[in-house]
Amino acid sequence: MAMNDMSIVVRSLRARLFSTCVTVLSVGVAVALMLNLLAMRDASRRAFERGTGNMDMVVTAGGQSPLAGVLEAVYYARAPQKYLTWAAYRDRFATGDRRIEWALPVQQGDSYRGMPTMAVGPGFFSTFEPVVGEPFRFARGGPPAGTFDVVLGAIAARATGADVGDSVAITHGTGPDGHSHDEHPYKVAAVLEPTGTAHDRAVFITLDSTWIIHADDSRADAARKTGAPEIEPTAENLTDEERKITGVYLRCRDGRVVGQVFAELRQDPGFTAALVQSEIRNLWGIVGSIDRIVVAIAAAVLVSSGIGILLALYNSMEQRRRQIAVLRVLGASQPRIFSLVLSESAVIGLLGAGAGVVLGFVGVQAVSAVLLEDYGLVVRPDPAVFARWALIVTGATMVLACLAGIIPAARAYATAVSRNLRPLA
To answer: Domain residues of the chain, as ranges?
Structure first.
C-alpha cells in the first residue's frame, strides 16, 4: 500500500476518532480475554502439579471424595470435615510395612489471622518436599524445638506480619466465629522461604500442641458437666481419642508397589486413599470441559468485536460517499477504493490486537499475583508460550478484521460517482 494511501486511511480513522477508539478497545478486550485464558490454562495446570510434592498419595478419613481429600490436605481448599483416629493411623501405618517409606500424619482445621494451620509431627520439614527435589528451606530461624513452636510459610508471614520470636494465638476453626486459643500462646520459631506452592500460606504447628489445646477444651467441658476435676492435658497423658488427625502424607519405597498399597487402602472403608497426581489429572479433566466452554465464549466475544468493526465501517459509508466520489474523480480506481476500506479495517484489527496483547500481559501478571497471594500458587505462563499465543491470536484477529471489512469495502466499491457529486442544496 502506497504511503499516500496510508495517509488517507489514518486521516479517515482520525476523522471518526471516538468510533475508532471504541472499536479498537472492544477488539483489545476480546483479544486480552482470549490470551489470558489460553496462556493461563497450561500454567495453572503446571502450578497444581508442582505443588503435590514428593508424596505418592494422601490418605484421609473414609466416606469422602478422593479429590476433596487432595484439595483439603494439599491445597488447603477448606477445613477437613472428618477425622482419623490415632489408633487407625498407628495400626495401619506404624506397623513396619516395608513397602512404605514414610507416612506423615497431619491435622488441619484451625487458622491464624485467616491463614490455615497445618499440624505436623517431628521430621516433617526434613522428609516432605513441597516440590520434588526442593525441600523446605528456612529463611529465618529453624525447625520447631518446643511443643508450642510455630513455623510460618512465606505468604503467611507476610500476610500476618508475624516474625521469629513473636507470640501468636491460634484460632479454633477457619471462620470468623472461631474462638482464640490465647490460653496457649505459640512462639514463632521460623519463617520458610517461598516454595511456590499452597504450603506458603500455611502456619505449621506441632501435632502435640493442637492435641493439647483441643483436649483442654473438651476436658474443661466434661468437667463442667460432670463436676469431676479437670486433668491438665500434656503430651504424655493424651488419649488416642484426643490424638486426632485429618490426613496422612504417604510415600512408598518403590513406585511398583504404589498401586498395591493404594488398592489395599481403597478396600478399607475407614480410609480414603487418593493418588495425588491422578486426582489432579481428574481435576483438570473436569476443568478442561469448562475451560473449552469459556474459550468458546471468548472466541464469540472476539467474533462480536469483528462485527463491531463491520458495523462501524458500514455505518460510516453513508457519510463518506462524497469523499469516495471525489477520490474516484481524482483518479482512484474502484479496486483501490476497495483496498483503502479493507486496509482501514485491517488497521483497526491490528491496533485492537496490539492493545489486547498489552492488556493480556497486564492481566496475566495481575492474575498471577492474586493466585500467589491468595493460594500460594506460582502460575506464571512461559513467555515463549505467551508470545506464541499472542502471534496466533493477533493473526486470527487480522483475518477476522479483514473479513469484517469486505462488506463495507464492497459498498464503497459500488459508490456511484455522478450521484454523489451533485450539489448538496
So the answer is: 3-48+283-420, 83-245
